[in-house]
Design brief:
elongated, 0% strand, mainly alpha
Length: 181
């Protein structure tokens, strides 16, 4: 459970929307987060990223009934489908780096090398290299240096790339939204 991640997505989404007629106060945001956890079984931004925005809107518009004492504004009247779309988009972008680091065994340097040298910073990109691991290593030569482990550095690096590509494929099968990135 990481409510802070949910708060971050919601607050960032609200601040990015210029068309919000009324900015929700902390009481309403608290209620939305609690409803996400309690009624939606959404505990962090990764789980939020996997939710259809229309379903999210339906969930919150049915379960949330907080009226703030200061504004007498119902959370249901503030909530819009556009807000839910933005929250899920933000959760996608925050989850993407997290997922890539999991694929790469937490190696931030490898992720940077893949992005900068091979333009392969997403699971979809990595999957496309699965048939050509040696070519990926040619495009991103610093990977061998980063993960090098002795005598047969190229073979070790090739094996790791194959593992990463296989993981990327599995993640793409599990989370369809990753195909968009």
């Amino acid at each position: 459970l990481d409510k802070d991640e949910l708060y971050e997505c919601i607050r960032e989404g609200i601040s990015s929307l210029e068309c919000c007629p009324t900015t929700p106060d902390d009481d309403i945001i608290d209620q939305w987060v609690n409803d996400l956890v309690t009624h939606g079984s959404i505990h962090n931004w990764r789980e939020l990223a996997n939710v259809d925005p229309a379903s999210l809107y339906d969930l919150l518009s049915k379960t949330t009934s907080t009226t703030t004492t200061m504004t007498k504004t119902s959370s249901q009247s503030i909530l819009t489908e556009q807000m839910c779309d933005v929250w899920v988009d933000i959760a996608h972008s925050k989850s993407l780096d997290e997922i890539m680091l999991e694929i790469l065994d937490g190696d931030q340097d490898v992720l940077e090398a893949l992005r900068e040298e091979a333009h392969a910073g997403t699971p979809r990109d990595l999957k496309l290299w699965s048939c050509l691991p040696d070519m990926l290593l040619e495009e991103a030569p610093s990977i061998k240096r980063i993960i090098g482990s002795g005598d047969d550095e190229t073979l070790d690096a090739r094996k790791k790339v194959e593992v990463w590509c296989a993981r990327a494929k599995c993640v793409l099968e599990e989370f369809e939204w990753l195909e968009w990135y």
